[in-house]
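Per reviewer request, we include the raw input and output of the structure prediction for the construct analysed in the revised manuscript.
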Amino acid sequence: MATLNKDIANRLAAFERKVLRRMLERTEVNANWRNRHNKELIWLFVDLDILLFVRTSRLNWICHLNRMSSKRKVSQVFNNNPQGSRVRGRPKTDGGIMHKQVSINEKLQIGKG
């Protein structure tokens, strides 16, 4: 599940306004047609907020996972507490060749070959 950071939130809000503008088209003012402003779109659709919808959907999904049986795979993955660590960062390379850990036995066999 991706995080909902400010950049994604801004893009979603812009998309929502774009769709609302397309749905509502233009408005007539003094026999002239003009595009609707953002404040007008927000005023017309106060209860429709895509960010609020995404957040509530995520909360509903988490509640659903908590009610789910612990034998189901989805619940096991969600409630899993992974242990251990992994190597961080980019793998070290030498001229485009990846280094790999070689055991002592493999070193001895390489030397004989």
